[in-house]
Each structure stands twice: as structure tokens, then as C-alpha cells.
Amino acid sequence: MSRRIVLAYSGGLDTSVAIGWIAEETGAEVVAVAADVGQGGEDLDVIRQRALDCGAVESVVVDLKREFAEEYCLPAMRANAMYLERYPLVSALSRPVIVKHLVAAAKQFGADTVSHGCTGKGNDQVRFEVGIGALAPELSVIAPVRDSGMTRDKAIAFAEEKGLPIDQSKRSPYSVDQNLWGRAVETGFLEDPWNAPIEDLYAYTSAPGSTSDEVVVSFTDGVPTAIDGTAVSVLDAILELNRRAGAQGVGRLDMVEDRLVGIKSREVYEAPGAIALIAAHRELEDLTVERDLRRFKFQVEQRWTELVYDGLWFSPLKRALDDFVDSSQQHVTGDVRLRLSGGQAVATGRRGSGSLYDFELATYDTGDTFDQSLAKGFVQLWGLPSRIAARRDLRA
Ligand code: ARG
Fold first, then answer.
1. Are 181 and 300 in contact (CB under 8 A)?
2. Banded model confidence at residue 113, pLDDT cuts 50, 70, 90
3. 91 CB less than 6 Å from ligand 1?
4. pTM here?
5. Residues recognised as catalytic
6. Which CATH class is domain 176-289+331-351?
7. How far apart, in Å, do the first and last CA atoms of the chain sit?
8. Any atom of ligand 1 within 6 Å of the Cβ of 240
9. 359 phi and psi angles, rounded to 5 deg
10. CATH of domain 4-171
11. Ligand 1 atom 6, closest CA
């Protein structure tokens, strides 16, 4: 049997050409692996067949939607993960689940190398390669677009020369990556950060208008378990909120982002379900998580998010922080009512069995059980170090 290489296959021009390109450059057989992470679009059987038509010896499509929802999107929601306080890690989350299945395919088909179609300028090359190294350090990686001069022009020429079944007219003028958790759009006229996004860019959201919707999201120990009282899986919760929040224009983002490779890039995102779920989850944490745990978790959330953004999903620190986040979710049980309107998801009500809100302590009306006489001494001792320091500073 000749040497085999597993290729992360999307069905687009670059990875279709990569099949023949890799075979010519290395003499190896190419096994194409396409992952369904909820990106929609083209039929996956069509994509599977295209890989064979382009010369792959084996072509598989793996349905990762449920696994992606439960093991990748859910931990991100529990960590309220938003890079630079805004971007819910859409692409950064899908890479590790794809990596896991590329590595499994390499074992299954006896490949010693994995290949991806990323350029050398983005984060995704890092996520693929660092992830593969963390799961299977014995595998090699090749990246034809980055390392062996497979430029766009050469790819098109190669496709024409070999008569590959690629329809150039269907090409988007942007670089788009999308999955269950959202959609990322870059390049084209967006490369001038002064250019405003146009309505054409969006596919998961409608333009925010004057309509509105209201939805109750219920959580059990930090897992979304019902929407408007109907039990849902994590996958269904995401899909349903993509639809409901997307219809109200929730989750559109236009930002300049710091990539790991040092470049600032202009990105447009839409992530209606992710943004709505995180808004609801945060709100319930405010109600149910003890003060110091909540305050400390903010730091953990930021670090967790940066690790995942930077391609370190399978790292020891990320694993340890997962344990912290999991333990923080024990009592995050209850309901949040969200108002979806004008592009915003705003909580207007929260309640639950995990609540730490004590009406009798909080009220300013009759029924108050808070002993205000204790506050006087507390405040004096709390401020004691500052008073001592102030006296010293005055003496000096
Ligand atoms: N900048 C985002 C990230 O690093 C999105 C990348 C999208 N990838 C793409 N090929 N368009 O997570």
C-alpha cells in the first residue's frame, strides 16, 4: 500500500485542488475528510463525491453537529467565551473537533500525515497543527497553500488543466467560515476597516428592525435544557436560538481583531444563537453563583477564551480551567427571559432553584431581615488599612 495523507476537505477550490496537488508532490494517496459542523450550504454527499472525482482514494463525511454542540459550543457558553469581549470563538471552536476526527481518520486509514488548506496568515493553521500535535505527536502535517506555493491562480490553472469539477462562478467574494455557533466573514472590501458592512454579508441574521420576540431559556447545572418550557438538546437550543434571535438581528459584530500571528484583521461575524445563549447564561450566573466565585470566574473566562482562540484547546491549562468552569456550574439552574429586538438580546427576568437572591435581605420595604447594625463595624474594619496608611502619608 502506498503512503496515505488525510486531508481536511471543505469542497471548495483550494482543498479540491489540494487533493491532486498533494498526490503529485508527495506520491501519496489522499483520503478526504469533510466535517459537518452545521455549516449548511452544499449537500454533503455532493461534497463527498467531489473529493473522489478530484482523485481522492477515500472520501468520508462525518456528522459532528451533536458532538460539536455538546463538547465544544457548550463549554464555550459555560465559559461565556468572547474573545476581545465580543467574538464568540466561532471558527476557533470548530477546529479542535475537526482535528479530533482528522486524527481518527489518519489512524483508521493508515495515514502518517494530515493536511489542511489554511494560509500562513491566519489562526486556523495554528489550531489545526497544534491540535494535531497534541493528540497525535507522531503525525506530520503539510499545508500546500502555505508551504508549497499553491496560490489561487495556480489552483485555478491546476483545476482547469485536470478538468476538476469546480464551479468558479459560485465563489464568494469573501472568505467565509460558518458552523452552528456562528459565521465569520473576512477579506474583499472589508479589508478597509472604514468600509461599512453591507446587508449582503449576512446569512444567519435579518437586519434589526422594529419587530421583537421574547424567549425563556431554562438551564440545569449550566446546561440549556428547555426553551419556552419545551425540553431541548444543546444542539436544538442552539438551532432554535439561531432562528429566533437571528430573526431579530441579534449577534452581528463588526470588529478589528488581534490574530495570534500578530496581524490586526477586520472581521464581520454573526452568531445569534451563541450571543443569546451566553447572555441568558451570564444572567443566570449573576443570580446563582456565589460572589467570589463569580468574580474569579471572569478571569478564568478570559484566559480560557484566549487559550482556545490561540489554538490550545487540547492543552493542560485549558483542561484544568475546564474543571474549574464545570465545578462553577453546579447551581446554575433556573430560567432567564430574554427580549430579542433591534439586534439585542436583553434579559428581562431571572429565577431559579439555584438562586442566591434573598428577597428578605435585599428589600428596602417591610420584611427586611438584614441587620443594618452589623454594617457599622464591618465598614470600620474594612476601611482600617486605608485609614492607617492615610495617617502615615499625612505625617510624611
Ligand atoms: N478570525 C476568526 C478566527 O480566527 C475567523 C477565521 C475564519 N476563517 C476563515 N477561513 N474565514 O477565529
1. no
2. very high
3. yes
4. 0.96
5. 14, 95, 124, 175
6. alpha beta
7. 84
8. no
9. -55, -40
10. 3.40.50.620
11. 91
